[in-house]
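Convert to structure. Protein one:
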Amino acid sequence: MKKTFSTLILTFSFITFLIGQNKFETKIGVSYNFAFYNGYPSANYSLYLENPASKDGFGMTIKEEYFFLTFLSLQTGLELINTKIAFNEYTLSHNFGTAKYRHNLDIYELQIPLNIKFTSQNFKNFKGYLYGGIAYRTLPYASAKVSYLSGGQLGSGNIDARIENNKFSPNLGLGIDYFNKEKKIGLFGEVCIKYLLGDYFYGGQKKYEWITDALIDNERFVSIVLGVKF
């Protein structure tokens, strides 16, 4: 207990020391995310994903940066990415037996990145930057609507969805900053490519109105982010 308490005090003191050096920078932004999917056979009674179609989604990001040097910083934070995908899949329903239905998934993925960022010199209040690293992934929420191929809805609700195989994502981004020194606030825009190592597993509806077994191979995101920095 004493070691834990001492560690917390030392950690708090170190963070306070870093903040006192005025080397932190905060970024808050919104993103538009392009998703690219492929479907392939999964185990058990799921044969394949037929006619997969991905849809773009929005997101939010908040990042904290600590500058070791004027051109080098460590970046972390939280990124919420919303993406959607639809496909035909064999499904076991308690009411209607086994048949193929159209599934429309709405997925919210949370990523915790850890990046190294390189920043260029000032040019009339503008700076370019490049960053790369890896992010930890988790799914806080996902839902689906399941419909007959001929039309009409079978059911909807929260689903059993998680990340299989690998919960990390390498990412690479580039952007540009504009900073107003007098107002101590700025704007930024960036483009980031995220290569997702793991797949989405989709097991059906949590109240067991339908059951399925699908692996959804999510190869990459391309995110366009706009926001403010201070």
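Protein two, convert as well:
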Amino acid sequence: MSKLMNREDLIKERVIKKYGTGLVIYIYIFIWFLISTGFSEYSYGYGYSRLLSAGEPGGKNSKYKFIGNSGNSFLSGVKFLGTLAVSYTYNFADPSSTTVYPYGNKNANYIDNYQVNGPTINEFDITVSKKPAKNNNFITSGFTVTLDTGQNIQDVGPYTGNYSYYTQYIYYRQLCGFRQAYLSLRFPVGSGLKVEIGEKNYLIGYESYNLARTWNNTYSPITAIEPGELMGIFLNYRFLPNLKSTIGIAYTDNALVPVNQYPTYEFILVYKPLNYLKFHEGMVYGAENFIIYKNNLIPDNLNKFFYNFIDAKFSYVKDYDFVLDYETGFNGGINKSYVFNNGINVNNLPSNIYPGQFVSTSNSIFDKSRFTGIAFYIHHYKTYNFGKFSQTLRLTDIFDPQGLWEMASVPGEAFHYFDCTFTIGIRPNLKIMRHVQYRFEFERQLSNQGVYGDGNLSQNTVNLMMIYTF
């Protein structure tokens, strides 16, 4: 979903610190206690899909902790796994904690660690899942449930039917929610038709909501435009050994309760013509939009939202991955007559949140707001005597000409962002730390307007992160 409805966050006067520093320190001590007393030895698993200390995304899981027995019961294939990511971020732009210029005390354009100069629990993710068994004669079933807590869920997480999720400031939002909850059915049709019903993550370009499955500590600014979860029915089919697709029809975006009754369509294509070359193509059309008026949601009557990404991963050179990711979005807004019919005086809408190009005058306004972003990744990984070591360079260039997409943009103004991020990761060659990765990251962000700190055109941050998978 686009960020049109979240502009109240931009005028927050000061940070509301929901939890005290003492609690955060206590949690850190508890986490380190678990690791140092051998909790890793108990869990048997290498992580939520993959731990990218030194390896390419999409690698197969090594081991899991199985809940059920090895028999033929439904629970026999159930897997339990999870991810914990904690970090400390220091922002050299030094945003003020007491004054507004103009966005308050947070790391601008971050969605997973907005807290300035302090420790953060970015993610604590627990997943219980079971894949449908392959059977050419019978329909088989499975499921996936993911419960997530931490700052990475507050901006893009589901509001599970509570509309106040979008009418309140980000600092007040709940710190937990279901990232995924869906039933899987496999039908013995051709290579196997898999049908998933429920709430699912949308693939966000080349990155993932799970930090153990990314190369960087922070998400690229492009993620501000990407859909989060979709609630509906999804069909997955492999046409060829190197070609698979997903088609979905959803009635909510980031929700369990629809804002309107317009469907949202999803399409994803994965093509791997060579062992060292892989393409992803994905699009969403019709994601829900709305405006906030007197703390109520007014649904979109045009439902004209389009988001598309395409990326290519090249891994021909040993120990290197190169990725190019292009993303674009268009949004039509809300018809002005619909606003009037709901008793809203369009002249009373805050101009800094809903400018004229958003509340339109006709149905043919599919290009009222637009977005373009491109990201380039270079990832190197290798195993040494001391452990697995990786380095990742990410370059991102973003255009938000109407100011209606990026978190730090001001509606009605043109913005251009550039982001350069370098991340070092290490998984020590110690048995007790085989599930732990440490990352150090430096990020430099630039903008054509002073959106960082107290009006700076640039922002430099350093981030130290620990990721533990089980």
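Residues 260 and 299 are 6 Å apart (CA to CA). Helices lie at 21-36, 39-43, 164-167, 336-341.
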